[in-house]
Amino acid sequence: MARILITSAIPYINGIKHLGNLVGSQLPADLYARYARARGHEVMFLCATDEHGTPAELAAAKTGKPVEVYCAEMHQVQADLARGFRLSFDHFGRSSSPQNHRLTQYFAGRLAENGYIQEVTEKQVYSRADNRFLPDRYIEGTCPNCGYDKARGDQCENCTKQLDPTDLINPRSAISGSTDLEVRETKHLYLRQSLMRDELEAWIDSKTDWPVLTTSIAKKWLNDGDGLQDRGITRDLHWGIPVKKGDQDWPGMEGKVFYVWFDAPIEYIAAAAEWAEANGKSEADWRRWWRTDEGAADVRYVQFMGKDNVPFHTLSFPATIMGSRDPWKLVDYIKSFNYLNYDGGQFSTSQGRGVFMDQALAILPADYWRWWLLSHAPESSDSEFTWENFQQAVNKDLADVLGNFVSRVTKFCRSKFGEEVPAGGAWGEREQAVIEELGTRLTAYQAHMEAIEIRKAATELRAIWVAGNEYLQAAAPWAVYKDDPAAAAAIVRFALNLVPFYATLSAPFIPDASATMLEAMKMANADWPTDVTAALERLASGHAFAVPENLFRKISDEERAQWQADFAGQR
RNA sequence: GGGCCUGUAGCUCAAUGGUUAGAGCAGAGCGCUCAUAACGCUUUGGUUGGGGGUUCGAGUCCCUCCGGGCCUACCA
Question: What is the CA A231 to C1' B73 distance in angstroms?
Answer without folding.
Answer: 8
